[in-house]
Amino acid sequence: MSIPDEDKPVATYAFTIPGKPVAWCRAAGTKGRHTPQKLREWKKKVQQYALTDKPATPHTGPIRLLVIAHYALPKSTPQWKQPLMRGGDKCTLPDVDNLAKGVMDALQGMHFENDGQVSRLMTGKGYAPGGEEPELKVRVDAFAPYPETQEEYIGDSS
């Protein structure tokens, strides 16, 4: 598995969304499945902050996506344990794949045409180092699309 010119993305975009990250989910109701209001609002917030660093048109090539969530320590955390947990991994809900799914849905049509273009996904969740506020950090690395024809691949040899 490789990305064309892996070490050379054609563009990189990075932004931070302040506030507690929200994971993707579907809620069941009396009229079937629906997207909860909290998730719809989070998606709009991600899109708002994504506007600070986005391409003029969505990329069509492979995408490498990095999503890192920082959470506040639970209020019930004993004082003696807080220094151990700050900056450490969070091993409770939400699932990291659901954090990434919400971001991919929000960026679809902005940074890339379809979330199926995400060929590498790096995600993590932890407690904010130093007790900072919760946030979500996102980086999108866009790579050149594969050539459509053999001529594009070989180039003009004349």
Can you put this structure into words, describing what you see?
The protein is an alpha+beta fold and 158 residues long. The chain has a single domain, classed as Holliday junction resolvase RusA (60s Ribosomal Protein L30, Chain: A, 2-Layer Sandwich), CATH 3.30.1330. It is 22% helix and 26% strand. It is built from four helices and six strands. A four-stranded mixed beta sheet has the order 1-6-4-5, with helices on one face. Strands 2-3 form a two-stranded antiparallel ribbon. β2 and β3 form a beta hairpin. α1 packs across α3. The chain is globular.
Strand content: 25-35%
> Roughly how many Å apart are the termini?
33 Å
Radius of gyration: 19 Å
Total individual domains: 1
The number of helical runs is 4
List descriptors.
alpha+beta; four-stranded mixed sheet; two-stranded antiparallel ribbon; globular
Give the helices and strands, then pairings.
Blueprint: E1 11-18, E2 27-29, E3 32-34, H1 37-50, E4 63-71, H2 82-85, H3 96-107, E5 118-127, E6 135-142, H4 150-154
Parallel strand pairs: 4-5
Antiparallel strand pairs: 1-6, 2-3, 4-6
Helix pairs in contact: 1-3
Summarize it.
With 158 residues, this protein is of the alpha+beta class. The chain has 4 helices and 6 strands.
